[in-house]
Please model this.
Amino acid sequence: MQFNTKLLHGKTSRGYASREMLPPISQVSAFRYESMEELEKVFAHKSMGYAYTRIGNPTIAAFEQRISELEGGVGAVCCSSGMSAIASALLAVCGSGDEIITCSGLYGGTIELLHDLEKLGIHTVYTAEMNGDSIRPFINERTKVVFGELIANPSLKVMDVAGTAAAAHEAGIPLFVDATTATPYLARSLSMGADAVIHSTSKYLNGGGNSIGGIIVDGGKFKWDADKHTALSDYKKYGPMAFSVRLRNDIWENIGGCMAPMNAFLNYIGTDTLGLRMERICDNADKLARALYEIEGIKVNYLTLPDHPYNKIAKEELRGLGGGILSFRAGSKERAFKIIDSLKYAMIASNIGDLRTLVIHPASTLYNKTAVEEMNAAGVYEDTVRVSVGIEDAEDLVEDFVQAVKSVSR
Ligand SMILES: *Cc1c(COP(=O)(O)O)cnc(C)c1O
Model:
């Protein structure tokens, strides 16, 4: 089955209790049992069943199973947000004294989280790029996980998933990939070698900008070594499922960052159109990037532009598509603000992955607390405008952006 067929007709698309075509919304906190014996078995994991929505809920499970199937994983855990997913995944494998290897230019919230983890004794090492050669020198006995963004936002650095995974695996270390901006449509991270893939579902998976959420999908292939990964030592008997079980029955459950059932439903119906939307969004972004590229004095950052430093790897890893995010440099903060303010259609909003085109000046918003060097490493400068391209008609989008940019150049 190809992507859209699998999405709509995969094995997780049927089997609901009353033959519903969509997962029913179990908007409850808890589940009622006929006898105490039954509930005891559920708590002991001896019989299948739901007890309490923080720990499990059928609507949330339907969305978890759908994304797991789409990514080719062995299981997934939904979280209250993308940040909650990243925090849970990292805390499942790291403790005080451990190290994480990642790449500079991460999502701002993730950089802040890694600063917080530093205070708990979990140290992060930053490399300039994500490939086998760039991470190898930083691996040591304290390294517990390599974490990267498949397409960094908005720097558009693309990670070499296969190369990074090979170098990490040689050293007995798993690779976790935040594929929020790539989506399962552009790349199958697990089949390229990642051991877990994380999404902020708030973005492209939901697609309509109507709920915050996150998900972690476990590839189930990594060979956890209980001596090295001491955080998982109690889960040794679960073999390749050790990470999933530690996450679900321990860190994730205890932190309490579950997804709301209603949000799981909204994410489920949003995902129905993921393939269609990504096709349209990538086509629109490509057309817009090429139109802006023609304008003198405007520097455009988009993956399908032939002179983009990650153009070649994007061709190999991302179906030759560039994703929905592009940025350009306007020349100054004032010009950036003027361009943004003179757009007719793009909404000024701090989000990506919506059906509607969204635009923002990242330096004065998303990076207003970040040190300048860290911000520049993330591909954000004083004059950067970030665009999250939507599904509007390309002609209208191009005309709007070109008029806005030209009105400022005059
Ligand atoms: C938005 C985003 C996150 C955080 O997700 P939330 O749902 O906002 O918590 C993490 N990583 C990337 C790449 C993102 O774009």
In short: The pocket of pyridoxal-5'-phosphate is lined by residues 81-83, 107, 109-110, 149, 153, 178, 180-181, 200, 202-203, 212, 214, 352 (CB under 6 Å). The mean pLDDT is 95.
